[in-house]
């Protein structure tokens, strides 16, 4: 793709596990045309680095090696051979205008990483100080346990000592007080930058620095580390994207943008549950509230939110960004089967299609909302044709990992022969979901206003002048372009008051939909769960 700063503002991101999507990088390469046609111009590869795979690849054992099975190589292949195969894939993706970013967990490694294998050997091992060791398990007592119900403590006994971990016990945390760790991680990033990777999603970034007497999250030193990585990335390849994965409130996440000198982008985690709440309540309020300046402050010029309906994890309801009342409402209304429950009610493990009752019109409305709100949208693999929860994969992974982690329900393999058969049958559920979504994505791509414009939420009135809470309306404005979005969140057709002088502009929307306008009544009607995007 052309060298351009800020490209991520116009991106349509598609998130996938290479092996689950289509076996390996060759399989992914075979599907680049499919992705291009869908409208995707950036791939976010979920963990591809070498790993025992106990935490879906977030437990990294070699930062400069891709899992050989993903490259179609023997386990004994050298890092140079692996890098060459990956570089060829990057070249192919770039030739089709598709950028590639991937996950890198820099807070912790796998217990099988050579650094840790050395570190645990003895107190005076040169790598001992790459990790956090103690004689007891009393330290950092205020750090919450992230995997409540799956982990008892943040300390794990190993020989006569304990090591510290924020995630699973097989993921020891790195010790960034040791400058060698910082430099080693910098060299790992440089290795991939030289190969041509377009960016990194830095996983679990808030936890990098630990300080006794604090919760060990979002500390000032963590921000200094991020600034260091950003300065380095800007120096080597200025258009490289650094994406912060910080499951925090927006006012904490925006600190990771710094003054435009930390991460370029961050996930808007709190928006996601509020979109689900709005769709179920048939009310625009939850989304309007979460996007108000009190909750989502303005961000620096070059920064961007990444938005999503579903991802590789659960529909998260952590109290970091929903109230107890929201959590109960969303859990009660969306956790439709006991096995979808995640972490004692802290989330719902279900695919978008399941949450939307396998109803193409509900899925389309959800996407019409997400794709037209501010931010860069992320599509999770399989959602574009309504993939369902994968119960078989979930059972298989429980056996393999020994952890009853319901997030495995939302992963699972794609079987392309079946999928293609369905996509080629216009009457199928998959084709119905795909057709609407790909049309919306490709329309959105033509208008930079969606990725770069400001948001102005409107009050929409019915023909009697009453404000309609179940119809959401907003302007997206960029330079001299303005787009009006109308979303009918209700199950009934709605008549919307519109001055007759402007009605003529609304006979057809940007998606090619014909609109029923009533000049006598000065109104336009929007069907149940309908949506319009107007270029005004």
Number of domains: 3
CATH architecture of the largest domain: Alpha-Beta Barrel
Q: How much of the sequence is in beta strands?
A: 15-25%
CATH fold type of the largest domain: TIM Barrel
CATH superfamily of the largest domain: Glycosidases
Estimate the global geometry from the Cα principal axes. Answer: globular
Give a count of the beta strands, DSSP E runs of length 2 or more. 23
In the CATH scheme, the class of the largest domain would be Alpha Beta
- The residue-averaged pLDDT reads 94
- The rounded distance between the terminal residues' Cα atoms is 31 Å
Give the helix proportion (percent range): 25-40%
Unreliable stretches covering 5 or more consecutive residues: none
Helix count, per DSSP?
19
Plain-language structure description:
This protein has 536 residues and is an alpha/beta fold. The chain folds into three domains: 7-108 and 178-448, Glycosidases (TIM Barrel), CATH 3.20.20.80; 114-164, Oligo-1,6-glucosidase, Domain 2 (Oligo-1,6-glucosidase, domain 2); 454-535, Golgi alpha-mannosidase II (Immunoglobulin-like). The protein contains 19 helices and 23 strands. Strands 1-2-5-9-10-11-12-16 form an eight-stranded parallel barrel. It has a four-stranded antiparallel sheet with strand order 17-18-19-23. The protein has a three-stranded antiparallel sheet with strand order 6-8-7, with no helix packed on it. A hairpin with a 4-residue loop joins strand 21 (516-518) and strand 22 (523-526). The longest helix has 17 residues, at 79-95. The two termini are 31 Å apart. The relative contact order is 0.09. The mean pLDDT is 94.
């Amino acid at each position: 793709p052309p060298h351009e700063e800020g490209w991520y503002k116009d991106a349509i991101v598609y998130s996938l596990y290479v092996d689950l999507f289509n076996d390996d990088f060759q399989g992914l390469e075979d599907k680049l045309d499919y992705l291009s046609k869908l409208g995707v111009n950036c791939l976010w590869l979920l963990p591809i680095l070498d790993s025992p795979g106990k935490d879906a690849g977030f437990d990294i054992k070699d930062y400069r090696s891709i899992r050989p099975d993903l490259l179609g190589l023997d386990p004994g292949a050298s890092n140079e051979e692996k890098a060459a195969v990956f570089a060829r894939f990057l070249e192919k993706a770039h030739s089709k205008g598709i950028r590639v970013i991937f996950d890198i967990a820099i807070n912790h490694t796998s217990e099988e990483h050579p650094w840790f294998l050395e570190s645990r050997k003895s107190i005076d091992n040169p790598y001992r100080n790459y990790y956090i060791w103690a004689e007891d398990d009393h330290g950092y007592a205020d750090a919450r346990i992230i995997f409540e119900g799956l982990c008892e403590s943040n300390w794990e006994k190993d020989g006569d000592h304990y090591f510290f971990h924020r995630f699973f016990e097989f993921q020891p945390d790195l010790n960034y007080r040791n400058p060698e760790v910082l430099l080693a991680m910098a060299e790992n990033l440089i290795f991939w930058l030289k190969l041509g990777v377009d960016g990194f999603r830095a996983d679990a970034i808030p936890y990098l620095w630990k300080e006794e007497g604090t919760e060990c999250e979002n500390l000032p030193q963590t921000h200094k580390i991020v600034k260091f990585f950003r300065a380095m990335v800007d120096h080597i390849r200025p258009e490289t994207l650094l994406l912060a994965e910080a499951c925090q409130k927006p006012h904490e996440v925006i600190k990771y943008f710094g003054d435009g000198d930390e991460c370029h982008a961050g996930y808007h985690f709190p928006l996601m549950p509020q979109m689900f709440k709005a769709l179920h309540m048939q009310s625009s309020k939850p989304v309007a509230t979460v996007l108000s300046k009190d909750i989502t402050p303005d961000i620096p010029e070059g920064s961007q939110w990444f938005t999503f309906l579903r991802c590789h994890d659960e529909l998260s309801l952590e109290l970091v960004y929903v109230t107890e009342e929201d959590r109960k409402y969303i859990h009660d209304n969306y956790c439709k089967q006991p096995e979808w429950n995640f972490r004692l009610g802290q989330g719902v493990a279900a695919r978008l299609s399941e949450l939307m009752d396998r109803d193409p019109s509900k899925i389309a409305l959800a996407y019409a909302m997400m794709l037209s709100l501010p931010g860069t949208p992320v599509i999770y693999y399989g959602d574009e044709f309504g993939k369902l929860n994968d119960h078989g994969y979930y059972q298989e992974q429980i056996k393999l990992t020994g952890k009853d982690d319901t997030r495995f329900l939302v992963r699972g393999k794609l079987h392309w022969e079946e999928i293609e058969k369905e996509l080629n049958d216009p009457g199928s559920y998959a084709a119905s979901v795909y057709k609407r979504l790909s049309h919306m994505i490709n329309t959105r791509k033509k208008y930079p206003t969606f990725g770069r414009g400001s948001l102005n939420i409107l009050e929409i009135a019915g023909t009697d002048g009453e404000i309609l809470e179940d119809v959401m309306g907003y302007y997206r404005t960029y330079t001299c372009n303005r787009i009006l979005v109308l979303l009918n969140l209700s199950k009934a057709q709605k008549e919307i008051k519109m001055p007759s002088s402007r009605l003529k502009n609304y006979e057809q929307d940007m998606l090619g939909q014909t609109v029923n306008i009533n000049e006598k009544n000065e109104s336009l009607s929007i069907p149940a769960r309908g949506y319009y995007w107007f270029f005004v």
